[in-house]
Amino acid sequence: MMGCNVILLLKCLLISEFHSHCSSLSHPYHFVNINLNWTDAQAYCRQNYTDLATIDNMKEMKRLIESVGSDYTGQAWIGLKKGTSWRWHWSSAEGETGYTNWAAGQPDDWDNNEYCTEFKDDGKWNDISCSSQTDKWYFFCYTAPTCKDGINATWNFTLINQNMNWSSAQNYCRHSYTDLATVRNKEDNDLINKMVTSGTFAWIGLFNDTWEWSDLSNSSFRNWKMGQKDNKNNACALAQVTWPGTWDMTPCDEKHPFICYDDNLILVNRTTTWNEALNYCRTNYLDLVSVHNEEIQYWVSRMAEKASTDHVWLGLRFSCYLNFWFWVSAENVCYQNWETNNTNFCGNTGAVQSKYPHYWVSLPETMQLNFICSKCPSMTDPRTQYLQNCQNV
């Protein structure tokens, strides 16, 4: 029992100085009830907040709607605008993962109308029309793991044996699961392929468009109203602020209220040691960022893409005395995203790769890297209860 108390006391000493209060890492939305065109709304948000709203999933969409309140039930600008470059994205907002498995000669955009992807019975992919009344297939949904599922939990893919077009399949998956399937690597592709019988085609979540977010994020989340016509005159996105918050393609010179967001993560594009980064974040913001689930990992990855160094410091440190990794902000290391063959050495600290696949790596604390600060802890602050436990040691 004494040994357990000593370990708990050491853990408490590691974290007790980091106690603070805040509620959420996800960026807060701000509804502005002023009628402006899209460009003026963008300028207003950039001057007073961070930018026009970026939305990454249906949970974010729900939070955006809640930020507006019940007094306004119309539509509002968000930060999505048509660009000029066609890109393939995943429905689950991950942008491009780097892995593809196109069939020979694909994608070919036959008849200039093939913007979605079907999974063939040989495991290869083919681009195809999203909304054709004749191209209706089965489809794969996935459910993302949560922290309580354990460190080694994987995405759970489900084949839905109903024939739908791509948009209807996407709506079904978002309502009943997480989203249409994202195929991140060969292991995912092989797993899905085992579920496809001979002669069966099925939708996955890959699609092609030119739309871009105002803050230049690579988020590929879309929530278009069914039947939207993508043409050059309707180049900005207008969101309905009542559930399910679907979006219209609208001329950018129309005047509407709009929604801004603030970022709770800050990439500091200067090179420092880990300790210097820690001191900078605590002096100017709250702390070096903690990554305790896949959602926060996504936000950190998105921020790290803008770094000027190959890796970016996290608030992760190895304890020589207790032989474990800990977040300096006191959250449990439940979710992990380590690169294989990672080493645990005294004096090593944690960083994330700037580019895909954004694994964590163990590096000497004296290296000079960019770093990410947080304005708020990444969840309802767990330190109060932990520090109460410390008082009883």
Automatic annotation (TrEMBL):
Residues 29-133, 152-261, 256-374 form the C-type lectin domain. The keyword Signal applies. Gene3D superfamilies: Mannose-Binding Protein A, subunit A. InterPro entries: C-type_lectin-like, C-type_lectin-like/link_sf, CTDL_fold. Keywords: Signal. CDD domains: CLECT. Residues 1-24 form the signal peptide. It holds the Pfam family Lectin_C. This is Macrophage mannose receptor 1-like. SUPFAM superfamilies: C-type lectin-like. The keyword Signal applies.
